[in-house]
Each structure stands twice: as C-alpha cells, then as structure tokens.
Design brief:
The protein has 74 residues and is α+β, with helices and mostly antiparallel strands. Helices cover 24% and strands 11% of the residues.
Length: 74
C-alpha cells in the first residue's frame, strides 16, 4: 500500500521532488490524477546543478535548489 499515492489526504501540504538526471528518482506527477485540483499535487523541480549521471540522485543535497526550497517552506 502506498498511502501518499492512494489518497491526497495522507500527503503533506507540499510534496516536492527534485530531479534532472537521476535514474533512481524521477518526476512523480504520475502519482497525481489527471483531473485533480488538489493543492497537494506533486511539484517537480528540475535541479540544474544535479548533472552527474548515476549521482544526480544524491547531488541535490549539496545544491542551492534544496536550500532555497527548504527556506521558502519555513
């Protein structure tokens, strides 16, 4: 079971994913219903600094996009 996928009521107020060349992570908008108007839809942000193939999945920890996203959430 995947509660975050099955029902929007289980999702956090913001669900943000960051990817560019990550093979492990990717765009998560496939978890949203096409006609959904929920404010809890997935937000996909492309990290321009995550460029290394096979390492992009962890590169974002050291990039400014994560810092800006967390700061804005606070």
């Amino acid at each position: 079971m995947q509660p975050l996928i099955q029902d929007y009521k289980y999702r956090p107020d913001q669900w943000i994913t960051s990817t560019r060349r990550g093979l492990i992570s990717g765009y998560l908008d496939l978890y949203d219903l096409p006609d959904s108007t929920s404010s809890k839809k997935v937000t996909n942000l492309a990290d321009p600094e995550a460029t290394t193939l096979l390492m992009a999945h962890t590169e974002y920890w050291n990039n400014s996009l994560l810092v800006k996203t967390l700061y804005n959430a606070l």
